[in-house]
Every structure is written in structure tokens, then in C-alpha cells.
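QA checklist item 7 of 12: single-chain prediction sanity check.
[x] sequence parsed
[x] length recorded as 274
[x] structure emitted
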Amino acid sequence: MDSHYFESFNVLHDAIEKFDISSSPQDEEALIEQLACFEILTFSFSKVVPNFQRLTINKNLPDNNNSTVNLINFLKNPPVDSVTKHGRANLKGQTMLYGTFLLPTALAENNPDIGDLITISYWKLKNENSPLTVYPVFDYFKTKNFQLKQAFTTLIKDYPEVFKDILIIDSCLVASCFSKYIEKGKEINYTLSAHYANRILHEMHNGEINAIIYPSVKDTTRVDNIAIKPNVFNDMYKLAEVRESLVVSKENGMILLHEQKRTKNFEDNLIIWK
């Protein structure tokens, strides 16, 4: 790869890290217009994601005063009309199903308070071995996922060198946007990753990409999260188990829980607690 090309990308990466539009939200529309002018090359893999989990903070749900959740719909993605801010992989007014693969990651991402009731829902494929078409967010030069890097290298091996470089740099560009830390209350700074997520999931490859897998920003181990199109989630996944827990302490970055109850019994949209 041309060293000048790589150095230019490093400058862009630093600019993304420092980017903060929260003090001038009126500039967001102009920013989106500029982003739309940048063409990117993307790729995807067919990947079986057999299961994942979600963490719901009960008090954040409508008409819930830190009480037990009894309806399955409350454990899924929020309705469109309630999405008033950008998320890591969704624009305002665009709902997305987010999941994690480890409970500590879910706790780090949601950061519940002491005394909160939380509901952990476990989801699995309706039909085993049904693959998703996935866009993996990763920095080619920094990733520790060597299996993914090898798969990516194999995928692009027959491309002309210039296209290889573009794919590598474009993947790093998207990774920089997804790895940006966003302060609470400054969700407008999700504009960068949300914009690219929208293009990847809805505008490119005829909308055939089902999900984005990306490293957690708030979990220092950088374990993956997943963002799935809600219609794909509803078609492919079913609820396997639900557990309710109380947050009893938070010390040195550790969140301790006391499990209240669990169930694998469901009827239509109802959670049947034991």
C-alpha cells in the first residue's frame, strides 16, 4: 500500500476521533450531504449466528416503574416513533435490533444503576445453520480477529492491487466511525457510524446485507456486538429464555446482579414467569 495513502488515512482517523458536532447541530444536514459524496467499497460474509442476548433496563420501558416485564415485544427493538436519536447503527426514526454475545458486554453497553431491574433475553435461530449476510466492522491493521482478517484477505486476493487498497482503507474508515466513543447526551455524534450503517444495510448490495457485527466500544475486551434488521430478526430468531435480575452493586467497573427469576415459557406475546 502506498505510504502516502496510508498517512492520509491516519489524518482522517484522527479527525474522526476529534469530531464533535454536538455544539453545532445545525450543521448535521450539511455533514450528511458531504458524507453521501464519499463512495465506499464494502464486502460481506455469509455467517451463522446461532444465538445472542439482549439486556433491557426495565424502568426505561413505557409505563414501567422498575417492574417486571411481561410482554415479549418490550424485549425487542423499539418502535420507530420512539427512536428520536441516532444510535451506533441507526439513524433517527430508524429502529434496529441490537444484541451482544456476552453478559459483561451487555452490562458495559447499558450501564444500569444500582437498584435497577434488568431483563436479559436469550435469542436463538428458529432453523439451525441458517446464515446471515453480515458486514463485519474491523480495522485491518489493528484487528486481533485473525480468522476474520484471513477470510477478508482470501476474499480480495484476486482483486487488482488498487482495489485491494481501497477495500482495506474503506473498511478502516467505517471501523473508525464505529469505534468512536460517544458521550451520553451527545448522540448526534453517532451521525458518522449511523450514516454508514444505513448505506451498508439499506442502500448497497441491493439491501441484501442483514446485519453488522462490530466491536463493543464500552467493553475494553472489544467483544463483538450485532445490529440486525428487525424484519430479519423476526423471521429468523425466537426467544429461548428470559431472566430478571436486580443490580445490587457497582464496584471497580464490575456490575453485580442478583437473579430474581427466569423462564423458558412463552405464549404468543406473553412471558410466563414461574
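[x] summary fact logged: The chain has seven helices and eleven strands.
[ ] second reviewer sign-off
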